[in-house]
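User: I would dearly like some help making sense of a protein record. I have put the entry right below:
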Amino acid sequence: MNLKIIVFITATIMGCKNNNQTKIIAETQTSPIKIENNAIEVEIDTALISKKLAVDNIYNNLNLNNVEISIPFQYSIKLNKESNAFEWDLYDLFISDNSSGYSQYELENNIPYDGNSRKEGKIHFVETHDSTAITTEKFKDLNKAAYKKIYYSDKESIIYEDTRNNIAVIRFRYLKEINSFAIYSKTNESFFSNASKADILDLSICQLRMAKNLFKGHKTNKARHWNTYKKSLSNLESKKLKNTINLLISSIDTLATNASYSFEFGGNIEVLSIMKTDSQVEELWRSIHKIPKNNFIDFHTLNSSDITDNIAFLRARENYIKTEFVDSSSVILLKKPKWPNSFDYAILKKTRINENDILLYTGGQMNYGRVNSKEIAYFYNSLLNNYHDL
């Protein structure tokens, strides 16, 4: 990689928190790797990395850039329409934002974790007829000064620590059907997170697992078992969810009846909430069971109890919803989309904790949270039914 690109990437990291450009390296290691973390050495066996890369997940199948892709349940993706002028000489592949065969997509992770700005990397589509324009061998020969340590590599991907002590992920794949390279890149900047290096590496492995499965064709999901969800979570995701549930449960003793407590993340996004309830919850539940599955209905015609004042999803002025899933103690609701491919779901779970009648739900009093796809809706439904097993 020439000096021009090294300068560009550094300037990008310094100037834009959410714009991550990374570099490619190649060198497979088979021995355990020691990570220094606040004077504590954490030993990582690369065989365990390979095992974690093979963990199954629940996927959402989409068509992107005339190619079918599969992304994990917690991810969403969108075309980056912003004009960020740049040129990138990536070995034998020249990338420019104004090239006719170039497009860029941003991935977002809708599960909160410490250091998560929702930006979970980018996918660059670059048109070329040269399927060997990018190789790990080329980086090994040309860019040895760009990295300090390699944690994992294969012929199309790499996890490494750069000279700024960040752990970076890159995955490239040549797609013959559209004569293009698809390049996934993400730098997990340690400066913006209090997480341990071991947890950042674990997160990077999960990101690479996502990237390695992007173009494996339509993935038929197995049954949505909680164990599948749980095993696929990164350490950072799992820890944040567990801490969130613990915070909600610890608030029960201080809550008045029909009062709620919400966990907020990333400013004012209410992710999960808890409410101590009385008999009104039974009235609410009877109303919910009247919501049809096949057509949208104005929920205000079914229920107007005070208990909905703490649930923005049920309190909204335009409140046409239908049922995606319902059983005796939990429900997934879908709000009528205001525009195509824009979805809002809510999950409510009626339970009993510490001898109190409790309602757990996504979102809060002010907003709906981050439940914007069917797959992540089913994840939260499974989470609220298995919150004790994180």
User: Anything to note?
Assistant: The radius of gyration is 23 Å. The first strand starts at residue 33 and ends at 37. The chain has two domains: 3-212, 226-385. The chain is about 25% helix and 35% strand.
